Amino acid sequence: MSLAHIVLIVAAFVAGAQNALAGGGTFITFPALLYAGLDPRAANITSAVALFPGQIATVIAGRRLVTGAAGLSVSALVSLSLVGGALGALLLIATPVSLFTRLVPYLVPFATAIFAWGSFWRTSSDAALPRLGPRAAGCAQLLIGVYGGYFAGGIGFLMLAALTAAGVHVRNAGATKNLLAAMMGASSVLVFLFQMKFDWSVVVLVAVAATVGGQLGVFLLRRIDETLLNIGITLIGVGLTIVLFIRS
To answer: N or C: which end of the chain has fewer CB within 10 A?
Structure first.
């Protein structure tokens, strides 16, 4: 087994756990796939396809925590995610990846700041009140779905920000965003499978490691103290922001 394969296995395992907790796993698998020799566009699409099985396994493990948001049912959020993911995948095939790649360093700190505000600075009197109404929450989910289908990096933070701003508790928001991310992945992967060719040995390797890592993430999501979870998610966002701006 080559060093590139070892790097891919470790990166995929960590990415699977991180996706289950907060999202951002793409930022780990994407550079690892570049290191393995894939070009940026192929690395982006391969990452989306390979992480999808782990997303499904994570959803199944945490399904009891899934909830609606801002008056929108789970099925409504799922539908918006499916449509958005398909539109984003079609956009990726039709246009260069550079535009969304340049936006990522700004989207992640923005989403992290919103999440931190919703987690640490809401007062007890208004914490239960949704800050996003159904229309705003629905529009946000559709736009996140488009972004997720195009370049999935950071969608977990964006969804956590939107869901907590809509009054969903962080533990439920974590499980719900796992489901919605999987739905975005389902529609985008379906588009990619009909339009692109893959190195399936790489896809399978990353998929297996990410699935195992995802189960660890779900285990931590169910048991970790909610305050620690809030702090951990915020720190991950800050760390990703620093790395992204260094690379940009």
So the answer is: N
CA atoms within 13 A on the CB side of 120: 14
Q: Which DSSP state fits 69?
A: B
CA–CA distance, 143 with 146 (Å, rounded to integer): 5
- Relative orientation angle of helices 3-21 and 26-35, to the nearest 10 degrees: 170
User: Is-contact 163 144, C-beta < 8 A?
Assistant: no
Contacts of 2 (CB under 8 A, 6+ apart): none
Cα–Cα distance for residue pair 57/60, rounded to 1 Å: 5
- Which of 98, 109, 84 is closest to 185 using CA atoms? 84
Distance between CA 137 and CA 135 in Å, rounded? 5
CA distance 222 to 217: 9
Distance CA 177, CA 243 (A): 23
* Amino acid present at 175: A
pLDDT tens track for 167-214: 888 888 888 988 998 899 899 888 888 877 777 888 888 888 888 888
Q: Give the bridge partners for 72, in sequence order.
A: 69
For residues 164 and 227, give the distance between their C-alpha atoms in angstroms, rounded to a whole number.
14
What's the DSSP call for residue 169? -
pLDDT in tens, 104-115: 678 778 777 766
